[in-house]
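Final report, closing paragraph on structural work. Over the funding period we assembled a curated collection of sequence-structure pairs, and we close with a single example.
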Amino acid sequence: MTLDERVRIGLARSADTGRLDADEVLDGLVLWHRRGRLKRRVARQSIAIAVVLTLFVGVALLVSWRSTPARYRSVAAVAVGPANFTAANGATVKLGDPVRTALAAGTRRATLLAAHLAPDDPHVDFRAERTAPNAISLTATAPTSEASALVTREWVSVFATTRKADARRQLIAARQSLTREVATVHEQLLSIDAKLAKLDPKIYGSVRMYDAPNGNVRPGPQPGGPPPVPEHGTVKELNLAFERIQLKSRLEKLGQVAAAQRFGALAPNVIAAPIGQKAPVRVDATPAATVPALAVWIVGLVVIFAAACFMYRRRARLLRA
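Its predicted structure, as stored:
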């Protein structure tokens, strides 16, 4: 509103009220003029402070972005089998979660050592996730593209080796358990043989040499083994003879399983098989100071605006007084 407009409004109001008070009109004009000058002065001061604050925040963000090193990310896809599966030799293998295995401390340490890096290098980031029921992705982020590609490639190799080693340990444990079971059954069979030899020494007196772990090993012509079940015998003898047949049948089945475990092999694609690896790409990480700096800037602008309003109202009241 211009000065002429203010004068016209004051004169029109005086005419409406029926009295003309030049001093009141003049005082109103002076007060309006002073308020305008006060508003402009407070606005200039507030804008100046906001500009200085913005410059400081902008410089801080620029420095933080320039000081943040470049990062490169490489992704590899790996096919994995189910957690529980039957190997080619018939043994059951139970593997852990592939994502947890890939992110295990031992796996990451072995990967860094294989890539000729420090085992506790903080500049390399590992991330693994399941992308399909039988596939996972391994992502390695490093300061250079060469390091990212190398770490990802070694990570796939170490992960596959770790899974295979876990499966082999389980197969060895199963083989040892089978050996102990065979030894236990042999002991039971020899105990049955001893009881039968005591009950009927004519038929079962030499049965131990047939049922020993190495079988009939005496040189010279070998006589035939004892009959499976005697034609005439007591109930106890017949029960022992039938139990002996069951133990020998069990030993035969255990022998077949042992042979399969000895000559069987694991299918590599069931454990872990690499599908492919993408070329490294640059990724710009947001500096840690970005969010705090922006928060300080926004809060500062709000405080400056609130302080400007408070100062204007306070000084405006002083002008009226």
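Residues 216-222 have pLDDT under 50 and may be disordered. Residues 3-68+286-320 form one domain. We thank the funder for supporting this effort.
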